[in-house]
Design a protein that fits this description.
This protein is of the alpha+beta class. It contains four helices and 13 strands. It has two domains: 91 residues, Ribosomal Protein L25, Chain P, CATH 2.40.240.10; 94 residues, Beta Complex (RNA Polymerase Alpha Subunit, Chain A, domain 2). It is elongated. The chain starts with a strand and ends in an 8-residue tail after the last helix.
C-alpha cells in the first residue's frame, strides 16, 4: 500500500487552551495510539490533504520530532459547517500484527449484462480488509466480466492475496440491474408476442 509522510511536532500541552491555540495557528492536533503510550503531536492542516481528501487508502509515516512512526488513520473530526479538520487519531502499525482498514473497490472487466442494456450498480465502494501491514492492498479488484443482466457479484467471488475480507459471504459488491429502457423493450416484446397469431393458425 502507498504511504504518505506527515511531518509534525510533538506537543506536551494537551488542554483546551493549547488545542485552540494550535487550531488558530492552522495546526491540527493529533494523537497516535497503539504504542507503549499515546503520542500527542500536531501538523499543518494542508499536510493532510492527500490523506483525507481522496478516495484512495494510504498508510502514514508520522515524523514527529526525532521519532518516526508507521500508522493508519483511525478517526477524524471535522467541523460541521466549515469542514475544517479539528482532530485526527492515528493507530501505530506493528509489522507482525494484522490490522483492519477500509480500502476502495476497483471495478475491472466488461459486463455482458451492461452491454445488453443493463445498469451497473456498485453496492460497496469500500471494503474492510485484514492483513499484515506489508500485505495491505491499495484496492480490492471486482471483476464484472461474468455479470449478466440481473446477476450479483458477491464478496466471496473476489480475489484476495495475503489479506482477508471482513464481510459476510452474502455481501453484494456489485450487480447489473435491468434498465427502464430494457424493461420497457421486454414488456413491448412480450405484448407483441402475445398478440401475434399462433403457428399453424390463420388470421
Amino acid at each position: 500500500m502507498k504511504s504518505i509522510t506527515i511531518k509534525g511536532s510533538e506537543r506536551e500541552s494537551v488542554g483546551k487552551k493549547a488545542t485552540k491555540a494550535l487550531r488558530d495557528a492552522g495546526q491540527v492536533p493529533c494523537v497516535l495510539y497503539g504504542g507503549d503510550k499515546p503520542v500527542h503531536f500536531s501538523a499543518e492542516e494542508k499536510a493532510f490533504k492527500n490523506l483525507v481528501y481522496t478516495p484512495n487508502a494510504h498508510t502514514v509515516v508520522i515524523e514527529a520530532g526525532k521519532s518516526s512512526y508507521n500508522a493508519i488513520l483511525q478517526d477524524i473530526q471535522v467541523h460541521p459547517v466549515s469542514d475544517k479538520i479539528l482532530h485526527i487519531d492515528f493507530f501505530q502499525l506493528n509489522d507482525k500484527k494484522e490490522i483492519m482498514m477500509e480500502v476502495p473497490v476497483k471495478v475491472t472487466g466488461t459486463s455482458p449484462g451492461v452491454l445488453g442494456g443493463g445498469v451497473l450498480r456498485l453496492n460497496q465502494r469500500k471494503l474492510k480488509v485484514k492483513a499484515l501491514p506489508a500485505n495491505l492492498p491499495d484496492f480490492v479488484t471486482a471483476d464484472i466480466s461474468e455479470l449478466e443482466m440481473g446477476n450479483k457479484l458477491y464478496v466471496t467471488k473476489l480475489a484476495t492475496n495475503n489479506f482477508k475480507l471482513m464481510h459476510p459471504d452474502n455481501t453484494v459488491v456489485a450487480q447489473v440491474r435491468i434498465s427502464r429502457a430494457a424493461m420497457k423493450a421486454a414488456q413491448e416484446a412480450a405484448k407483441a408476442a402475445k398478440g401475434a397469431p399462433a403457428k399453424g393458425k390463420k388470421k
